[in-house]
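Entry:
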Amino acid sequence: MAKSPGPFDIAKMGAILSPSGHTYVREITPDFYQKLDAEFDGFAGHALVARHTFSEAWPTWEMHPKGDELVFLLSGDADFVLWIDGKEDIVRVNEPGHYVVVPKGIWHTVRPHQTTSMLFITPGEGTLNANTPQL
C-alpha cells in the first residue's frame, strides 16, 4: 500500500489496485510493466490506474482477457477502435469526462485526432498486444 496518502502525479506514478483492496503506488519507468508482472505475480487479480498522453495512433492493438477496461478522456479527441465481430467499431471520444468501457476479451486501439490524454483502469493480467487484432 502507499506509504503516503499523496498527492501523486498520475503521469509519473501508477496506482495498482490489489484484490485485497489495497492500493500500491509505483513510479512509471521504462520497465514499469515488467516490474509490475514480477512484483504482483503476473498482475493476477490486480488493476492498474494510469494516465497516458499520445498524439499518434497506437502502433499495436491490445486485449485484456481477465476483465473490462475503463478509459476516461481527460483532454483531446480520439477514436477508440474496438474489434467486434470481425470489424472495427469506432467510438469517438471528444468530451472530457466521457469514457469508454472496453469489454473483456475485445481487441482495441486508439487513433487520436489531436494530442489526447486518457486515464486507464486496466485489468492487467494476461494483457496481449499484436500488430493486428487476433481472432
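The chain is about 5% helix and 45% strand.
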